């Protein structure tokens, strides 16, 4: 699916994986819980800056989360293959591959202090740090690198989770034209996963919404949302809670901060939890 065979791409991938590993607890601790899943997504209605075509993409995502005595970690890596609807600077077709990952670690203030700090609708407050990093072998060759830090508020819900990140956002990304002089901004991200049962059918409603401010250098505010409705199709086969199918809806206003580059389309979703 991907075509990252060169030395530079191998170094980028190694850097990504090393960075993700470094965001896990530094000392040996026992995990209280752990969840890993692989997703496959497909849509033919992606948009790219400077390209009037809809672009088809196949995306494989490896996602992992865990919790331990002082907090939790979350990370994912996307491998994306674009169709030939993409275009280079001269308008010629190209079909690039892309690797992109995000990693976040959150320290619980309640657990650090040894006493509950909140109550009522609030479950906890944490300190969060994160990193977004990637590479795409198109002619534009974007290499995103974003550092984030701030506070996460966990809300008390009967099942699943609902939390909101309030983060500072520092963009140090580059591309083949150079490294824009971005200014610092903010990212506010509600995220959730709510399990449900309807008539004997189990499922989950999960997703997030990123609200990201303008970073200067010609960018504007952007909104990215990826809610998923997925159903447990493994349950009738004796594999409850392992195999899911459904739809992820992608809404992205001002993609990458580019004014007027908008996405709004469903994606087919197949997911395996292990």
Describe the structure.
The chain has 274 residues and is mainly beta. It has a single domain (7-273), classed as Beta Barrel (Outer membrane phospholipase (ompla), Chain C), CATH 2.40.230. 8% of the residues lie in helices and 57% in strands. The protein is built from two helices and 15 strands. Strands 1, 2, 3, 6, 7, 8, 9, 10, 11, 12, 13, 14 and 15 form a 13-stranded antiparallel β-sheet that branches. It has a two-stranded antiparallel sheet with strand order 4-5. A hairpin with a 5-residue loop joins strand 8 (145-155) and strand 9. The relative contact order is 0.13. Residues 1-7 have low confidence and may be disordered.
Strand and helix layout:
Elements: H1 7-22, E1 33-48, E2 51-68, E3 71-82, E4 86-87, E5 93-94, E6 97-108, H2 109-113, E7 122-136, E8 145-155, E9 161-171, E10 185-198, E11 201-212, E12 222-225, E13 228-232, E14 243-253, E15 263-273
Helix/strand order, N-terminal first: HEEEEEEHEEEEEEEEE
How many E-type strands? 15
The CATH homologous superfamily is termed Nucleoside-specific channel-forming protein, Tsx-like
CATH C-level class is Mainly Beta
Kindly state the mean pLDDT as a whole number?
Answer: 91
CATH topology call: Outer membrane phospholipase (ompla), Chain C
Strand content: over 45%
Q: Spans of 5+ residues with little confidence (pLDDT < 50)?
A: 1-7
What structural category arises from helix and sheet content? mainly beta
Q: Roughly how much helix do the residues carry, as a percent range?
A: under 10%
Shape estimate: globular
The major pleated sheet works out as: 13 strands, antiparallel
- Span of the ends, CA to CA: 22 Å
The count of helical stretches stands at 2
Overall structural domain count: 1
What CATH architecture would you give?
Answer: Beta Barrel
Radius of gyration: 19 Å
